[in-house]
Write a structure and sequence with these properties.
The complex is a heterotrimer of chains A (about 300), B (about 250) and C (about 280). Chain B has about 250 residues and is an alpha/beta fold. Chain B has nine helices and ten strands. Chain B has helices at about 40-50, 70-80, 95-105, 110-120, 140-150, 170-185, 195-205, 225, 230-245; strands spanning about 5-15, 15-25, 30-35, 55-60, 65, 80, 155-160, 190-195, 205-210, 215-220. Chain C has helices spanning about 45-55, 80-85, 95-100, 105-120, 125-135, 140-145, 155-165, 185-200, 215-220, 245-255, and strands spanning about 5-15, 25-30, 35-40, 60-65, 65-70, 70-75, 90-95, 175, 205-210, 220-225, 230-235. The mean pLDDT of chain C is about 90. Helix content of chain C is about 35%, strand content about 20%. Chain C contains ten helices and eleven strands. Chain C has a single domain (about 5-275), classed as Rossmann fold (3-Layer(aba) Sandwich). Classes of the chains: A mainly alpha (about 300), B alpha/beta (about 250), C alpha/beta (about 280). Bound molecules: adenosine-5'-diphosphate (2 copies) and magnesium ion (2 copies). Chain B: Pfam families: ABC_tran (PF00005).
Chain lengths: ~300, ~250, ~280
């Protein structure tokens, strides 16, 4: 064995090793310009969302009918909209909404996708067939149309949009987790776990989920771009966040009418959406390289 | 400690019959070998007998009790298996501690720390290895961990599926010595698959020669040099192995 | 046996990019029309030597005082020159035919195509030559096997097809990297015998890379023993039992023998001094 490896193992206990691994991944991501951009944008998004009240010079809801449709100036960095609200402040508060959507969708979609995929993949046979046919049904609609249908049924609101997006975003994750599970299912360490009396639930949770997690994480990150766009799309169609809320997609929707004369109404929210979804795409790509030991060696 | 009797084991995958009415019996405390060409069904016998494969017919008795009627938890404490590829049989993200603690937790056995240490000592690894991950171990060390994992539930019967064929001769010698010592100390019954007659001759008292899902002959160890094998394939296999080694004689 | 050597290697050192130390260090040997075995444990650098000779290590730093194959300087030759040499005048046989044959093409076509890449021939001629070669590696019914796909042939048959492919162009040097490790004992002997006969008949220089001391003892004239990237001992195969180096002796002793005593096998005690340079090379 390598000397460096034996040294690290002497100092390393279970917990710090975990943190060390995440730290390694982050440093790897930071070293490449593309994924570093992703990291910076994500960090910025979180920071802005946390410090929104400090950063925003105005309230996002404060109307000023004297000052509608003002172009960008010192007073209003990104200009004002048709009701005289400060666009910069609305964008800053909109970061909170975007982050909420990302967070909620992730914690709903990740576990559902992992659960369905690993269970289908591990048990195979009839369980697999039923679960995968359900997945297929969800997959056979374009996600925006399906979310539209859900929101139409549940009534338009931000929470319903999040539910609708989650319902349409888990099938690809489930597919992926199933495919991964099928490759690990016949591994000798799974056979050994079964010989030790581990129940299927225990095997899935302790042996299979850790193996699927990296690729699911990558896929989730890449999916976030789609999620943000779908949320914006729903907002744009008036089915997501409702009017006074500073959701980026909804801002574009209302700004659309004044677009020809007042470019700033749609440009800045559009750029924000572009940046964040691009950041997630780049981050996902970087993560794929960071988590793949073969690719790491090649570099 | 416990004898193993396999009766009329038959299994099909798809249309092909992989095992065809295989019967054999292993005395308690014996080391019994299984040799044969690759694909002849040696690993399949072990996987059926340990109930990793379900759809087979026939029966396997361990200490007179059928593995089918045994409580699954009880079965784990009676038989354990060591796999061929030490790189594939340890979970890449589980530390040695996790590997050894899992079976103890599943079976609700106390004094975990002491038992894990003892298992590592039994297989000749330093106790500090508890906090290592498989990628920090060499092939031989991994195989020792796999053996420790099999030992920790204190089974009576060990199935060994080519435990040394992925290892260098120098490391193979260490593992074979370890297996022999453990049998002397704890009186295990071994059912050992190998493609190397020299290993079988070194370890086993009797062995069965397999070809395409059938046992063609069961022979005592001495038959390798006696030339008492009758079945043509057994003769061919022994002849080839001896020729291969000839210069050593 | 040692007229003009086919291959002359002096102080070959290979350092993989990213590795802390060279994987092969100061390996020197000469090869005539004979069979040279390279043995050692896994990771000792045997395959790396073979690949370095074939110039198949683009990402590694390969240095040597001399690396001459007949009239070709393997160190300085252009990649274009290597394309003409590789496969035609020196060939390599790998461990598992499953990974060396293209799974979606008929075995025979692959052999015929290998012939046509190096020799101008019509399709019919190449086919005839391929069938003749399959016959030469003692495949019964070569016409039938010609039309099989790789997954339809057994491991031993696949390896014979590989040998047929390698020997088509009558190379002067064949490097066989663990050619029979994936095969059963009974098949292993047949394949080795075929390889051995062809190599002797055609006067080919053979480098047999293996971890198996029995194999090199029976099928080689000379043996290099490698440990941690260095050649620790070079012997005639017949004198293997008289090996001096403790590593070689340890490996020999650790091997269980049919009819041997059942005492615990002697375990190899490694000595750090084995990795130090020493004058063991020929
Ligand atoms: N799960 C399975 N599904 C289908 N075929 C199998 C399965 N397991 C083994 N086989 C087949 O059974 C035969 C015997 O395999 P195995 O017992 O692994 O052979 P051995 O261990 O003797 O080399 C092989 O032909 C193999 O393809
Ligand atoms: N592509 C590679 N990159 C880096 N190191 C390598 C590479 N291939 C092999 N090595 C290292 O070189 C050493 C010798 O490998 P190899 O020649 O394959 O050994 P052998 O064939 O004797 O088993 C090993 O320590 C291995 O880890
Ligand atoms: Mg097997
Ligand atoms: Mg090799």
């Amino acid at each position: 064995m390598d000397q460096s490896q034996s040294l690290s193992s002497q100092t390393g206990r279970t917990r710090p090793q975990w943190m060390q691994a995440s730290l390694n991944i982050v440093t790897y991501l930071a070293r490449k310009p593309t994924s570093a951009f992703g990291l910076v944008v994500l960090a910025l998004l979180i920071l802005v969302a946390l410090t929104a009240p400090i950063l925003a010079p105005h309230s996002p809801y404060a109307q000023d009918l004297q000052n509608t449709l003002q172009p960008p100036s010192m007073g209003h960095l990104f200009g004002t909209d048709e009701l005289g609200r400060d666009i910069f402040s609305r964008l800053v508060y909109g970061a909170r909404i975007t982050l909420t959507i990302i967070f909620l969708v992730t914690i709903v979609v990740g576990p559902i996708g992992l659960f369905v995929g690993t269970v289908a993949g591990y048990f195979g046979g009839r369980v697999d067939m039923i679960l995968m046919r359900i997945t297929d049904i969800f997959l056979s609609f374009p996600s925006l149309i399906l979310s539209l249908a859900f929101v139409a049924a549940l009534g338009p609101s931000l929470n319903n949009a999040i539910i609708a997006i989650s319902l349409t975003a888990w099938p690809p994750i489930a597919r992926l987790a199933r495919a991964e599970t099928m490759t690990f299912r016949s591994a000798d360490y799974i056979a050994a776990a079964r010989l030790q009396g581990a129940s299927p639930a225990r095997i899935i949770w302790r042996s299979i989920v850790p193996m699927c997690l990296p690729s699911v994480l990558i896929r989730l990150t890449l999916n976030m771009a789609t999620v943000i766009l779908t949320a914006a799309g729903l907002g744009f169609l008036g089915l997501g966040a409702q009017p006074p809320m500073p959701e980026w997609g909804a801002m574009i929707a209302t700004g659309r009418r004044y677009m020809i004369d007042s470019w700033w109404l749609v440009t800045f929210p559009g750029l924000a959406i572009l940046c964040v979804s691009l950041a997630f795409n780049l981050l996902g790509d970087g993560l794929r390289d960071a988590l793949d030991p073969k690719q790491m060696n090649r570099r | 400690m416990k004898p193993v009797v396999i009766q009329d084991m038959t299994i099909r995958f798809g249309g092909t019959t992989v095992l065809n009415d295989v019967s054999l019996s292993v005395a308690s405390g014996e080391c019994f070998g299984l040799v044969g060409e690759s694909g002849s069904g040696k690993s399949t016998i072990l996987r059926c007998a340990s109930m990793l494969y379900k759809g087979w017919t026939g029966d396997v008795l361990i200490g007179g009790q059928s593995v089918r009627s045994m409580d699954p938890m009880e079965r784990c404490r009676v038989l354990q298996m060591v796999f061929q590829d030490p790189y594939g049989s340890l979970h890449p993200r589980h530390s040695v501690r996790t590997v050894l603690a899992e079976p103890l937790r599943i079976h609700g056995i106390g004094e975990q720390e002491a038992r894990m240490r003892q298992a590592l000592i039994d297989v000749g690894l330093p106790v500090e290895f508890l906090d290592r991950y498989p990628h920090q171990l060499s092939g031989g060390q991994r195989q020792r961990v796999a053996i420790a994992r099999a030992l920790i539930l204190e089974p009576d019967v060990l199935f060994l599926d080519e435990p040394t064929s992925a290892l260098d001769v120098s490391v193979q010698a260490e593992i074979l010595n370890l297996l022999q010592r453990l049998r002397d100390e704890k009186g295990f019954t071994y059912l050992m698959v190998s493609h190397d007659l020299a290993v079988i001759d070194h370890m086993c008292d009797r062995f069965a020669v397999m070809k395409t899902g059938d046992i063609v002959e069961v022979l005592p160890r001495d038959a390798i040099l006696d030339g008492t094998a009758k079945a043509p394939y057994a003769q061919e296999l022994i002849g080839a192995s001896l020729t291969y080694e000839q210069a050593a004689m | 046996m040692n007229q003009s050597p086919i291959l002359d290697v002096q102080n070959l050192t290979v350092h993989y990019g990213g590795a802390p130390a060279p994987s092969v260090q100061d390996v020197s040997f000469q090869l005539g029309r004979e069979r040279l075995g390279i043995v050692g444990e896994s990771g000792s650098g045997k395959s790396t030597v073979g690949r370095a000779l074939m110039r198949l290590l683009p990402s590694a730093r390969v240095t040597a005082d001399r690396m001459q194959f007949e009239d070709v300087d393997l160190l300085g030759a252009s990649e274009r020159k290597m394309l003409a040499v590789r496969g035609a005048r020196m060939s390599m046989i790998l461990q598992d035919p499953k990974f060396s044959l293209n799974p979606i093409r008929r075995c025979g076509d692959q052999v015929a195509e290998a012939y046509r890449t190096h020799v101008r021939a019509s399709k019919a001629e190449a086919r005839a030559k391929a069938i003749a070669m399959l016959d030469a590696v003692q495949i019964r019914e070569p016409e039938r096997v010609y039309d099989l796909y790789p997954h339809e042939v057994s491991g031993g048959m696949g390896q014979r097809i590989m040998i047929a492919m390698m020997l088509l162009t009558s190379p002067d040097l064949v490097i066989a990297d663990e050619p029979t490790s994936a095969l059963d004992v009974t098949v292993r002997l047949q394949v080795l015998k075929i390889l051995d006969d062809l190599v002797r008949e055609q006067g080919i220089g053979l480098i047999m890379i293996s971890h198996d001391l029995n194999l090199v003892r029976n099928f080689c004239d000379r043996v290099l023993i490698m440990y941690a990237g260095r050649v620790v001992e070079a012997l005639n195969a017949a004198d293997l039992d008289k090996a001096q180096h403790p590593y070689t002796r340890g490996l020999l002793a650790a091997q269980p023998r049919i009819g041997g005593s059942r005492q615990p096998l002697p375990v190899l005690a490694r000595d750090p001094s084995w990795t130090q340079p020493q004058g063991a090379a020929l």
